[in-house]
Design goal:
The chain has one domain. The protein is built from 5 helices and no strands. Helix 1 runs antiparallel to helix 2 and helix 1 runs parallel beside helix 3.
Length: about 80
């Protein structure tokens, strides 16, 4: 994901536009940094919004992220089991 896309994704997340952020990333290839930004900015009380992109998180190793992002990733993975 290019920096311009990461910036837009972060802007959407920071403004609480979670559905728009999910729609924005749904057709993008995400590197670990982009996933980390998304996991940090996404409010997990809206976890159901992730259903259309849940496959994005299934095969990601949480060990590649900070403790906080790793925990959030595992919560998402467990929720959609």
């Amino acid at each position: 994901m290019e920096w311009e896309d990461k910036t837009e994704m972060a802007r959407l997340l920071n403004n609480g536009m979670y559905k728009e952020a999910v729609d924005f990333i749904s057709d993008k290839e995400m590197d670990n940094q982009a996933v980390d930004i998304f996991l940090t900015g996404f409010n997990l009380t809206n976890i159901e919004l992730l259903r259309p992109i849940k496959e994005l998180f299934v095969n990601i190793n949480s060990g590649h992220f900070s403790f906080r992002s790793g925990i959030r990733l595992e919560i998402i993975k467990e929720y959609f089991k």
